[in-house]
Amino acid sequence: MQQILSVPSQLGALLKAARKEAGISQVRLAERLGISQSRMSHMELNPGSLSLEQLLAIFGVLGLEMVVGSKRPAPTGSKAPSPEW
């Protein structure tokens, strides 16, 4: 799986899709992270509540990694999206 995240709201869907692709339920993922299933659900629905440490822990369990790179320049005349924060 390779996904580009541009805005925070995309993270929840990515986490859910990666979890399902790995065949792991919210309950099992929560157990492996040492948290409750309701907290795991909250993290997927409200990814802005995640700390970097929590995000990397989830990525570790799901076999994901984070790669950071420069954005491609926007085509001339287009307006870059505003951050959602």
TrEMBL record:
UniProt cross-references to Gene3D superfamilies, sorted A to Z: lambda repressor-like DNA-binding domains
Which superkingdom heads the taxonomic lineage of this protein's source? Bacteria
Q: Which InterPro entries match?
A: Cro/C1-type_HTH, Lambda_DNA-bd_dom_sf
Query: Where is each HTH cro/C1-type domain found?
Result: 15-69
According to its UniProt record, what is one Pfam family this protein matches?
HTH_3
Question: What's the name of the protein?
Answer: Transcriptional regulator
Q: Which organism is it from?
A: Variovorax beijingensis
What taxonomic lineage is listed for the species of origin?
A: Bacteria, Pseudomonadati, Pseudomonadota, Betaproteobacteria, Burkholderiales
